[in-house]
């Protein structure tokens, strides 16, 4: 799959998912919060978080079954770099209170100044990182 | 059905639509994400279209929902309360961006890509959990 029209369609689905979760449960669909919250109190919220994550896997598996082909994903970094990157994403999203979905999709939709600034910052440092890795290193 | 069961089913449904969106848009693919972030290379506009598509739904949707007195299956909305631009927000977002750029993965795709059962995605996911857990423990000790 690919291309900008699938991007727009997929984006609308992501926006719809955020709308469903806020409308039904009053919760923000921020994936770093949903995943990070599994490991942190209050554990009374762990069940719905686990269900959301299970739903994400089911959505991906349903797509694979419907299309009859596995996902064709291309990993771009070596294993050690993947581990360092994972640590940075884990620390950074907890410290900054959100990621692409929580700040980028939900926070901007609420008109949150914090989320708009956070999104500009993480897109800028991500672009700078890719520039250094691909064109300067 | 009890209201807590309804809440769990709603979370499952929302997660399903979210995961579907990530694979339909190909945002689960690190090469696609890095193609967007690589502004000096062969730029790929897909991620920008994903953001526009998502906000086209979430902006009007949230505006309508937040005028309602309470969510369908609950007493109130759980929304962030902070409004100040503190160093943690900026520093955290900056660190997150570096990791996002290195791997081409943010948390949603990192979760979804596990369905491929490929080792690099598990390595990233476990490291992400470890980073989140370590930060939470340190931050809570200071507080």
Q: How does this structure look, described?
A:
The complex is a heterodimer of chains A (137) and B (143). Chain A is mainly α. Helices cover 75% and strands 0% of the residues of chain A. Chain B has 143 residues and is mainly α. Chain B has two domains: 1-79, no CATH class; 82-143, no CATH class. The chains are: A mainly alpha (137), B mainly alpha (143). At the A-B interface, helix 1, helix 2, helix 3, helix 4 and helix 5 of A face helix 1, helix 2, helix 3, helix 4 and helix 5 of B.
Q: What percent strand of chain A?
A: under 5%
C-alpha Rg of chain A (nearest Å): 16 Å
Most extensive interface between two protein chains, with residue counts: A-B, 109 and 114 residues
Rg estimate of chain B, integer Å = 18 Å
Put simply, the count of helices of chain A is: 6
Strand content of chain B: under 5%
Count of discrete structural domains of chain B: 2
First CA to last CA of chain B: what distance?
40 Å
Quaternary state of this entry equals heterodimer
Give the SSE order of chain B as H and E letters: HHHHHH
Write down the overall mean pLDDT of chain A: 95
Largest sheet of chain A: none
